[in-house]
Design brief:
Elements: H1 2-11, H2 14-25, H3 35-44, H4 56-73, H5 90-111, H6 115-146, H7 151-157, H8 163-183, H9 202-205, H10 211-237, H11 242-285
Helix pairs in contact: 1-10, 2-11, 3-10, 4-5, 4-10, 5-6, 6-8, 8-10, 10-11
């Protein structure tokens, strides 16, 4: 339960911290750290409006999506302390509980009858299909490395003593940061700040959602960011006591958010460079 409480706590300000850091990096003051959570609370106070073309799937999808993430969070340990739900092979259930929520969101976008939202649902399904093998390869590798098949067993017995183990830990961190970016529709696969048809994935899926349902979806995104940050922290806190593991958990989440901003800036730089090269080649040709 320690990990569950920490994730809930961090989810209140994690997205706000990321937005604030991006604003400062762009030369702007930016909103307050708690502003995204205030927006979500404002949406929770409103009622939801449903189109006459949608069915019951569209109405229950946000709740199932939120519930699936809560269920997945209950499986995450805090160092040597097991999660509320812990058993051998629980990381398999973790992946498919999240897949259940994602599946409901995809078919709810199709339930609207909009070809635009159907396009976003198709892209979401594609990226989810690419993320799943990466997750299982990483967790399967750690299962073989430690001889355990549960989150608590893997993280509790994980220790770094060779160059290969350090490389595996760094690779797992990098992969899980990218998985977090993909699952939460961030750069480089999506841009939550755009409204261009070519780049919208998750945002186009929830265009028909409003009020309480939209707030629930947005808060679930915050929870997923904190959830993947908790998994990354477990790669390093191992069997440390709470007095050390909790501060280290918060420090790694800070790194997780900073890496996302740094990666965003890097991918922007790559995009600008490609545009400049394209114009340079056009000038040479004509």
């Amino acid at each position: 339960m320690v990990s569950f409480l920490l994730i809930i706590l961090v989810s209140f300000f994690f997205t706000g911290f990321v937005i604030r850091t991006k604003s400062i990096a762009g030369g702007r003051k930016g909103p307050g750290i708690m502003q995204p959570m205030k927006d979500i609370i404002r949406l929770w106070r409103k009622g939801s409006v449903y189109s006459s073309t949608t069915g019951f799937i569209f109405q229950i999808a946000p709740t199932v999506y939120f519930s699936s993430v809560i269920m997945a969070i209950l499986m995450i340990p805090q160092g040597n302390s097991p999660g509320f739900i812990s058993f051998e092979g629980d990381f398999v259930m973790f992946a498919y509980i999240l897949a259940l929520g994602k599946f409901l969101m995809i078919i709810s976008a199709l339930d609207t009858g909009s070809s635009f939202e159907g396009m976003g649902a198709s892209r979401e399904a594609l990226f989810s299909m690419l993320v799943e093998p990466a997750f299982f390869i990483i967790m399967g590798s750690f299962a073989l490395f430690t001889g355990n098949t549960s989150f608590q067993g893997i993280f509790g017995s994980l220790h770094y003593g060779s160059e290969v183990s350090y490389m595996l830990g760094l690779l797992a961190t990098f992969v899980f940061v990218l998985i977090a970016m993909i699952e939460n529709s961030r750069m480089p696969v999506d841009d939550p700040n755009t409204h261009l048809e070519l780049t919208m994935i998750h945002e186009v899926m929830i265009l028909d959602n409003s009020g309480f349902d939209l707030g629930l979806i947005m808060y679930t995104t915050n929870l997923k960011f904190a959830m993947y940050g908790a998994i990354i922290s477990n790669f390093f806190i191992g069997m440390l006591p709470f007095a050390f593991s909790i501060p280290l958990f918060l420090a790694i989440l800070y790194f997780h958010s900073y890496f996302g901003v740094a990666a965003h800036i890097f991918w922007r730089f790559v995009g600008v460079r490609q545009i400049c090269v394209a114009f340079f080649m056009l000038n040479i040709k004509y």
